[in-house]
Write a structure and sequence with these properties.
Chain lengths: ~220, ~250, ~210
């Protein structure tokens, strides 16, 4: 039996790992997106102590390796009496970490948002929250699309770190298979292929969204 | 080929996509002569100038700089980069947008090519550069960086940079078009001084009174054709074509 | 935490720093070389490099480190853990650096290149004397940003047993049974390292903007 036959017979293990990675990725990136939007909303308006501390928190996260945050949640939190299993610690860490990156991406775009539009909305009697959801957020998300796409790929790659805190995702599957059958080269090539395919699919989707946005005149693609 | 001309252009043609920008253009520039090229925008005058040092490659025709053919070697093949660079070193070019190198100070902008192309010693190149800066009235700016200079000062540095190669011919591509009106004079004065010193120059410009004062020969291009070639007095006072009369009326 | 725990943390930080520094040094130069080769648009080689860049950018560092460290023996050569770590980080960062350099080339002012050619400079002299010095200045902010990303990705080498600043926290808590303090100190050390890079990046940006005016 060739090495590839062995891998084919173990395809269920890859598939389980892949699905697990996609679940972790899908759940955490959705949460991260919401967190990013929410942080942006919290940063609206005049500067205050609360906003300043949020900025410090966001900048702090961006100066930390993702794995350190996962360590904090997985190994550190039990000291404070909160015990998360590895899977949830991983999802939570990804969501908070990439939420901060999203917030920073949005903030950069918010800084150059045309003030005239906001004044027009105020003149039409929009409330702060409504104006944010209906007017500011959609435009900022469309404009920062390429950066969001990059961040998605970073987040996908960060899921692999979770093998270190014992989550049984895609890289863990390759690791255990290569240990069992001693065929690391083939096992990891397959897994790298998975990551590659998902990255390319995401790039294509982001580009398609760009066409949609250009049709609606939301940016100058 | 005549060896006593500074620049000799023979039946030059050039198209961009389907548009013919130069059609059978021939022109000779004698040593010490100042030729200005006039024409409406899009008439091909900048392209003609850029062909002279092969920044644009003509489709047909030939160009000789001081008797040496540019772009094509003796065997009729395209010149390699090194040979082309050697012929280009015989020409000095001044661009509309100055194109100084921002990472080098004024002195090094001027000495860069003499040192690294001609192989001059640094000391010799710097002495020459300071003389040239003196000539263009910027001796106090040797250590300044381009970003700190006005447009007129940048262009005078660019002229000094081109002169530093001691070229057979100086090419000026609309040297004052990117300048604020009050800075045009200082650059034109420098170019006039050069013509008085006997430099060979080909100048593309929109400054009519300057062209009249400085030129030995005026060439008028229209849709890629030379339709008038005359001494400035004849060209400006008694033009022979209606096209030139219209052009001059609009530019006074 | 006692003195030996602190010592271990600083040793871990040192390991992270030197392994990252070696990878960065190789990666910046290799990225430039790849960018130059890609400019030449040599058939087949160009496609191979495009494939490499695309794969290297999509592959998680953890996966890459495991792949290199576990595959090497089956291909007939064993790799030291540190060497495998450096190799993984370098393969990753080179791909990103190649793209940074390449965009530096593509955005280089055509006018300035023409001015160089008009003075009789050969393409090589133009590259060395006019383009490269400016491209270093304009690409530096991007390159430093990529260095921050490399440091943030460097804990991946913990997976193959390199005792870096991340893994050392496991070692310490295995003895003290108190994981939080070493993790917090490690976080602080990472922030100092990456904070320094962010600060350098800001300086580099200021310098690049000065050049642009």
């Amino acid at each position: 039996m060739s090495n590839w036959d062995i891998l084919w017979q173990a395809r269920d293990e890859f598939w389980t790992g892949f699905l697990n990675t996609m679940q972790i990725f899908g759940l955490s990136i959705t949460a991260a997106f919401v967190i990013g939007c929410f942080m942006l909303y919290l940063l609206e308006g005049r500067p205050s102590v609360g906003k300043l501390s949020l900025r410090v928190f966001i900048d702090g996260m961006r100066m930390l390796p993702f794995l350190m945050l996962a360590y904090l949640l997985y190994y550190g939190l039990p000291t404070l009496g909160v015990r998360l299993d590895a899977w949830w610690a991983g999802v939570g860490a990804l969501a908070v970490y990439h939420g901060c990156y999203f917030a920073e991406i949005f903030r950069g775009s918010r800084l150059v948002f045309p003030q005239g539009q906001i004044e027009a909305a105020q003149a039409h009697g929009f409330t702060r929250a409504r104006m944010f959801v209906r007017l500011i957020l959609p435009q900022i998300v469309m404009q920062t699309r390429p950066l969001i796409g990059n961040q998605l790929i970073y987040a996908l790659k960060d899921t692999a770190f979770l093998v270190i805190i014992t989550v049984r995702e895609l890289t863990a599957a390759a690791n255990s298979l290569s240990g069992t059958y001693f065929i690391p080269t083939e096992a990891f090539l397959v897994v790298i292929g998975f990551y590659w395919a998902v990255s390319i699919a995401m790039e294509i989707i982001i580009k398609q969204c760009g066409r949609f946005g250009a049709r609606r005149g939301l940016d100058h693609a | 080929m005549p060896d006593d001309t500074a620049v000799s252009i023979h039946q030059l043609s050039k198209s961009f996509d389907d548009v013919e920008v130069l059609r059978d253009v021939s022109l000779e520039v004698a040593p010490g002569e100042v030729v200005t090229i006039l024409g409406a925008s899009g008439s091909g005058k900048s392209t003609l100038l850029r062909c002279i040092n092969w920044l644009e490659q003509p489709d047909r025709g030939s160009i000789h700089i001081a008797g040496q053919r540019i772009g094509v070697d003796d065997a009729g093949k395209r010149m390699n980069a090194r040979a082309l660079a050697r012929v280009r070193a015989q020409t000095g070019m001044v661009f509309q947008s100055f194109n100084l190198w921002p990472h080098l100070n004024v002195l090094h902008n001027i000495t860069e090519a003499p040192v690294h192309v001609m192989g001059k010693s640094k000391g010799e190149a710097q002495t020459h550069a300071r003389e040239l800066l003196d000539k263009v009235g910027l001796s106090d700016k040797a250590q300044a960086y381009p970003g700190t200079l006005s447009g007129g000062q940048k262009q005078r540095v660019a002229i000094a940079r081109a002169l530093a190669m001691q070229p057979e011919v100086m090419l000026f591509d609309e040297p004052t078009s990117a300048l604020d009106p009050e800075l045009v004079g200082e650059v034109l004065t420098v170019i006039k001084d050069l013509s008085a010193e006997g430099y060979t120059m080909v100048i593309v410009t929109h400054e009519m009174s300057f062209a009249r004062a400085v030129s030995d020969q005026v060439v008028f291009l229209d849709k890629g054709l030379i339709i008038e070639k005359a001494a400035p007095a004849t060209f400006f006072d008694t033009p022979s074509t209606q096209r030139v009369r219209d052009f001059l009326k609009n530019h006074h | 935490m006692n003195a030996s725990a602190w010592q271990m943390l600083f040793d871990g930080a040192w390991t992270t720093l030197w392994i990252s520094a070696v990878s960065i040094a190789i990666g910046v130069v290799a990225g430039l070389i790849i960018a130059l080769i890609r400019l030449a648009r040599i058939p087949v080689i160009d496609q191979i490099l495009v494939l490499y860049i695309s794969l290297a950018r999509a592959t998680p560092l953890v996966t890459l480190a495991l792949f290199i460290f576990l595959s090497a023996p089956t291909l007939g050569f064993g790799l030291d853990r540190s060497v495998a770590g450096i190799l993984a980080l370098t393969i990753n960062t080179t791909a990103f650096n190649a793209e940074i350099w390449r965009s530096g080339f593509r955005n280089f002012s055509r006018d300035q290149r023409e001015a160089a050619m008009a003075t009789g400079m050969t393409p090589w002299i133009t590259f060395r004397r006019i383009m490269l010095p400016q491209m270093i200045i304009t690409s530096l902010p991007g390159l430093i940003n990529e260095m921050s990303f490399l440091i943030k990705g460097s804990p991946a080498i913990a997976v193959i047993g390199v005792v870096d600043l991340t893994r050392v926290t496991n070692r310490i808590s295995a003895v003290t049974y108190e994981p939080l303090p070493p993790i917090l100190v490690a976080c602080a050390l990472y922030m100092v390292i990456i904070g320094a890079l962010v600060w350098l990046q800001r300086l580099a940006e200021r310098r690049a903007n000065r050049l642009a005016t």
